[in-house]
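Please check what follows.
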Amino acid sequence: MSYGGEDDSSFEQITSTDLAPNVIQLERKEGVYCLSTATLGRPFTSIEIEDVQLHNEVFVGLYACNAALDLKETIVFSNVRIIKPAAEKFTPYVDYLGSRMEIMDIENGHRKLVFSSVHSLQAPNWIKQGKELVYNSNGFLYKYSFENKQIRQIASGFAQNNNNDHVFSFDGKLLGISHHNQEDQGDSSIYIMNPEGDQFPKKITKNGVGVSYLHGISPDNKTMIYTAYRKGKYDIYGINIETREEFQLTDTKDLDDGSEFSPDGKHIYFNSNRTGNMQLWRMKSDGGSPEQLTFDTHYKDWFPHISPDGKWVVFISFPPTIGFGEHSFYQHCTLRIMPAQGGEPKIIAYIYGGQGTINVPSWNDNSKQIAFVTNSD
């Protein structure tokens, strides 16, 4: 990384130790410029130049230089994004950035920008054999059609204050939502409704039990699982959809969250900081035999999503700077993948996002693509 003025004596260059990277990120923060590089799948290596005073308006470009003058090569830049991050005085859940709905081909890492919005879009679900995306924005649910590129609101009747914890059943016949119910003093409560729209969603959790955030529906459509505040702490609970009888699945002193059934219904994947850092876990569907899957000291891992063929888990990893138990908006995060039974995670995307990026199951039915949200002012 180098810069210089009209006087050659002001020229400065810093060389990274990272050789032959294929991922490049250049970041400006006031007078500090940071160049981060990586080979796709690996963490960034970063170098900085400080006290560089340039105008507020700058021009950004990409170029490559070949030292061998007699050798001609072609270089392709792909997945290029320009991002304006949140301001220093940003207030979470009061101030929001714009959103970019993206899809990715897992095999080759190619990302496509589907559409963008000045509003906060969150938690895309890929449904109907890859024909539609459903997402949350401003308390409502919306549906995007790949066929005609049209967006329409999904009617949800009185439920007009939904958060980003909405889940479709495996067969697509049920849609579960988390709505902030005024009868529960504005707490998030869980409902079930017709995926095509419903004026009268059916309340599943009972009044007065506490906050509930939906995360999964069992393959047989009999059980919903969610993060619930009970007994002074957050654990994972399940509920029988027909009888509305609630039962506890985890019981730890810290936070268990992000629960999701495996396609065969035998396991529940989730994230927990019961051993210190936020890690991925799985347990049997009855809550037994918990097994830790990630052992990160640097990242904080959230929201495991299992591919429809049951082979892979995609999740979001937050930087170590976020607080204990937090999954904040507008962070430098990574999306990572690993085998469903556990193993070494691999980075598949370097993103600016966080809360709302990939909170809900977001695989295409073909197990080859995922959908997610990134952010920029």
